Amino acid sequence: MNYTAVRSRYLDDAVATASPAKLLTMLYDRLVLDLERAESAQRDGDRAGGGNHLLHAQDIVSELASTLEVDAWDGARGLMSVYTYLLTELVGANVSGDPERTAACRELVEPLRDAWHEAADQLSGAPVRPGAPTLEPAGAAGGYASLGVLGVG
Asked: What's the CATH superfamily of 22-124+137-151?
């Protein structure tokens, strides 16, 4: 049995059937993983390996930026600014091979990833982790103003 093909098919099916909220959290999870791997490779002196992970991270941030509906919610323009900043920093971290710069990007992304997971959990009705902040319904429509359907199209 070809396990690589089976794994690839499983991942393809998981992505194809995922909700927009799940896709967003999957992208953030992979972005953090790419940044962790890039930082580790850079610290080990493997610029090529680190560069490959940073290029993939740039692709993810570009995808996040291209799907962000900046008019969907009040915070979207600020999030777009974060994406623009991240892209600049990821390119700089790749060119310089600087693991500290990569680590700073990861430290910026991790709380965003956690917040999107929290938002997705609340949308899906999943139990909220004890002590985690909650999102309050906004306005008469009862929608989540801070989510804007997670701000993705």
From this structure: Flagellar protein FliS (1.20.120.340)
